Amino acid sequence: MAKxxxxxxxxxxxxxxxxxxxxxxxxxxxxxxxxxxxxxxxxISLVITFWTLPQISSDGRLPILRLVVLLAVFSVIMxxxxxxxxxxxxxxxxxxxxxxxxxGVVYLGITVDPGVNLHGVEAPLLVAIVMSSVSAFVGWFFYxxxxxxxxxxxxxxVHRRARKLKATPKTGMLIIQIDGLSAxxxxxxxxxxxxxxxxxxxxxxxxxxxxxxxxxPATTPASQxxxxxxGSGQIPAFRWYEKETGRIMVTNRSRxxxxxxxxxxxxxxxxxxxxxxxxxxxxxxxxxCELVFSRAALPNSRSRGYVRFFSSPQGAARGLVLCVAEMxxxxxxxxxxxxxxxxPRVKRGGAYIxxxxxxxxxLRDLNVSLIxxxxxxxxxxxxxxxxxxxxxxxxxxPTRPESLQTLEGLDRVLGALQRIIDILPHSYxxxxxxxxGQSQGSTFLQRYGRTLxxxxxxxxxxxxxxxAAVGKSEGWGPVNAFLTELSMRRSVAGxxxxxxxxxxxxxxxxxxxxxxxxxxASADEQMVVTASGNLALxxxxxxxxxxxxxxxxxxxxxxxxxxxxxxxxxxVVVDSLAEGPVAxxxxxxxxxxxxxxxxEDPLERxxxxxxxxxxxxxxxxxxxxxxxxxRVDDYTQEVAAFEELVGCHGGIGGWQTQAVLVHPSxxxxxxxxxxxxxxxxxxxxxxxxxxxxxxxxxxxxxxxxA
Length: 706
Known about the structure:
It holds the Pfam family Phosphodiest. The protein has 23 helices and 23 strands. By secondary structure, the chain is α+β, with helices and mostly antiparallel strands.
């Protein structure tokens, strides 16, 4: 099926039809970087050879330097050649070809250079074999870590499989979620020109960008529940307490996620009709899922993209090289923040160094491989979440250089996916969506020297300390889903994973990382405090049902006034028997149902959506007896997270509720959606226009703007 002109990418138009992809890849190479890689590979191979073989020696350092230069120049030339032929011969062919080429050059170099001494008749052949083998492997190892090599490998597979495919009559939809990206930040990045692919689509008019309001809670689980299922009303926060069972529910914990999805799924989610869910919290009712929290513990079919990624030397070598590089980069960037005394900032050590490498390298490349497999198969709708930016922004800050670099990396991913779509016989529309933004600020603990739980403990009259469910488990969700699925596969990797995780895996899946505290079953006047960014839910655990304001004042007369007047708290929301949910601030009250305000409106600085958002939050099942939202600074719009994160989301204030949607411009959008359920309805409508919903008898014609 031929693609209409408006669906052909700018990359293809600039490259010209029929021009080989490898030429485009070659132009992206940087000579100096290639020279550095070649020099490092040559130096390493020479050191190893001179150190291990007695058959070779040199008259000083000059001959070694001459060989380094020779092999470095050769590596530059070979990098260009290998990048081109990788599409045809694959990564194994690149390794073999590089080995043979290096053998010839090394043999010539050591026999011609008068400063290199060879001992024995067999020396030239033996030294050439050893040196060329080491040099080729090291050079290939560095080459495998480059974006050019990885894209070339993926394109080779796509080319081979695309030739055997027949065009599908309908256009599919690829939905990429960039986790945590706010509309103001994307707008700034596009204007600065730092996103050539995504920014190019917007600049040339193929795509339009619109800001949408997430509502509260501004979290990935809540937004994805709305986008994928239209069920965001079931998610009051990232974690919450349920009085009926005495459990704390954590949305990225597999067993909890499966139970929560069962509550909200109707069987007709966004991905119900042959779609696939990749690296998400929820399945969207897709029959096929990969790395999905709510389905991680269920048996899954073997994905070709999954197998190809782990069986390919390119994927393994690239993952190893770049994971180590990412960890080194994190150590350097964290030290730079400390040396510059950059504020606000948080500690960036421990497990986060490992998590950043896994999410920003291994899982990102695995996502690309899985998406590519589905694109080639012609899957009607694909939804994948990339968490790279969100993970770094939590610890570095939403607008810090290292966070912005992850967006540039994701932009390159979008460019690669567009190029893959361009060579397929069937068409895809690309939609970019974020689930929320992020707000920056020094944490509540940093500002006031105490946690919110400690403040609550001082204000209540109980015999036991409150239980704090303020974990650092968000970053572990994708890793646990990945390890759970890997451990369930019948392969060598699966067997090794099962043995390595012995005792860490349960029926609900692998659970690594810090655990959220669980209140004791026999709690006596126990208070439970859960936190999600700058949103906190407080429960009177032993008092059944939603506890009204009047009863809270009788049981704990200092609690509400103490919280509402604390300098780190913007307002609290609690149910009143007389007027329903009310927002109480330092100097005023806002009745959420009627809009009546007494004194100073505590919601005014949180934007026009604040009253409706907080009313909706107050009416959710399992919402806290008391909802606490932190302060927001008048000028900087910074908030005070109840978790130790410099970039946070979960409540309201700042950029965290300002999500973004980038869609093909030919689809009209009269009003910006409000809430993730509205985004769900919008995407369903677009799928109907493409004829990809089975419950629509007659596909609606696409309405094109004049």
